[in-house]
Design a protein that fits this description.
Blueprint: H1 3-11, H2 13-19, H3 24-29, E1 31-36, E2 42-47, H4 62-69, H5 72-81, E3 85-96, E4 104-109, H6 112-124, E5 131-138, E6 143-155, H7 156-167
Antiparallel strand pairs: 1-2, 2-4, 3-6, 4-5, 5-6
């Protein structure tokens, strides 16, 4: 368990996400976690345009726009699925739609239905790759960028079973996999 995971376990996931506003990379980029629902179904994040995140032409640096969105779906899903599941980032993409000026924001939403769908699929499969998307908007609500994330999810017991089969020299069981 990483120091960040221990801190989240100690103070609770929603308070941990709120503390990301003092995470050094976010401080420098001007990223602020505005609101976190206690059940982690919704997280609102914003980023002001500052000299630290401004690009050569005076708009938001694309890397800062992505950084603002990077950890939230993974952290939300990890906390909501619980310690029986492994959750990692697998891939990401960003599509720039228009220049970002001023304060931009993103709202991450993860419904209970989606969490249960992912849990059910992970329970039936060795591993799954759920997709998520968030839109970054400006103060007028105009879309600035779309950030896509693909996560890797599986039950810890499935990971342990696959490891023990590999160590024993047995081929992976495909029973119950699609």
């Amino acid at each position: 368990m990483s120091p960040f995971q221990r801190l989240a376990a100690l103070i609770g996931p929603s308070r941990f996400l709120s503390l990301l506003r003092v995470y050094p990379p976010y401080l420098g980029a001007g990223v602020r976690v505005r609101r976190v629902e206690r059940d982690l179904s919704r997280v609102e994040v914003e980023m002001r345009l500052t000299s630290w995140n401004r690009n050569f032409v005076g708009t938001h640096f694309g890397g800062s726009l992505y950084s603002m969105c990077d950890p939230f779906f993974m952290l939300m899903l990890m906390a909501r699925l619980g310690p029986e599941y492994i959750v990692w980032d697998r891939s990401a993409s960003i599509e720039f739609l228009r220049p970002g000026r001023g304060t931009v924001a993103a709202t991450f939403e993860l419904s209970e239905e989606r969490v249960e769908e992912i849990r059910s699929e992970a329970d039936r499969s060795e591993k799954i790759f759920p997709r998520f998307e968030v839109t970054v908007v400006d103060a007028a609500g105009q879309a600035i960028a779309k950030v896509g994330k693909v996560l890797y999810v599986r039950r810890k017991e499935a990971a342990a079973s696959a490891r023990s089969q590999a160590e024993a020299g047995h081929p992976k069981s495909t029973e119950g996999l699609h």
